[in-house]
Design a protein that fits this description.
- By secondary structure, the chain is of the alpha/beta class.
- It has one domain.
- The strands form two sheets. Strands 3-2-1-4-5 form a five-stranded parallel sheet, sandwiched between helices.
- Helix 1 crosses helix 2.
Amino acid sequence: MRKEYLSAPLPFVGQKRMFVREYKKILSVIRDANVFVDLFGGSGLLSHITKRQRPDANVIYNDFDNYRRRIENIGRTNVMLDRLRDILVDVPRLKIVPNQIKERILDMMAEEAQTGFVDYITLSTSLLFSMKYATTLDEMRKHTMYNRIKHSGYDAEGYLDGLEIESCDYRQLFDRYKDRDDVVFLVDPPYLSTDVSTYSMCWKLSDYLDVLKVLIGHRYVYFTSNKSSIVELCDWLGKNKEIGNPFVGAKRKEFNASMNYNSHYTDIMLYNVV
C-alpha cells in the first residue's frame, strides 16, 4: 500500500497539514470530479493527498516554487545535515552557535554550493529559530544560528508519484482547464499581509484580488487566513455593491518615507476637489 504523507516531507511555510482531515472529507463528496488543479501547489501536500484519495483522477500540481527540486536533492541535504551534526557536536542543543563555528558552517555551505544545489530552507530549520528561513547563503549569514539540528534525515519516497507537474503562472493553468465541467480548482495563494519571502513571487493587493476571479462559476477549495482580511473585504463588497471605485477621477501624489535605515514605504494622497 502506498504511503500517504500527512505533512510535506520537507519544510514549507503554509503547508496545509492542519486541514488534511477536513480536506479528505471534502474529497469524499465530489466523486464526479475527474480533474483537480492545484493552482498554487506550494509543497504539493494538497495534490499528494488528492491523488492518494482519488487515484483515478488527474491531479495537476503547479510547482511554481520548484519544491520538486528540493525533493530531488534530499540526498545532498541529508549529507549536509550529517556534516552539520559533526560541526555542532560540542554546541549544546538549542544554544547559540559561536561565531567561529558559524563560520565553519557557512564555509561548508559555500563549498557545497560550488558543486550543486543547497536547500537553505530545509537547513534553516536546523539552524535558525522557529519560523525563520533563509533562501541564500547571504541571508543565512545575517541570522544568529542555534543548534536545532534534526536527529535524522529526510525522506520523500513516492511523494510526487502520479502527479502531473507544471510550473507556470496560475492564470495560464486556469485558462487551460476553466471550461471543463469535471474540474475542481485548489486555490491556496500566499496570504495577504503575511510573510511571503520564501515564495518565488512578489504580489500586490490587486494580485490577491485577481485570484478571486477563479472562484466565479467554478468548483473550488479556497484557503486564506484571518490575517489577510480577504473574506471580510468580500463580505463588505457584497453588502455595498453600489460603491464601485471611489477613486475614479482622483489625482494622486506620493511621498517616499522611512521608519529606519532598512524599512521604507510610500505615503499616498488621493484627491478629487473639482
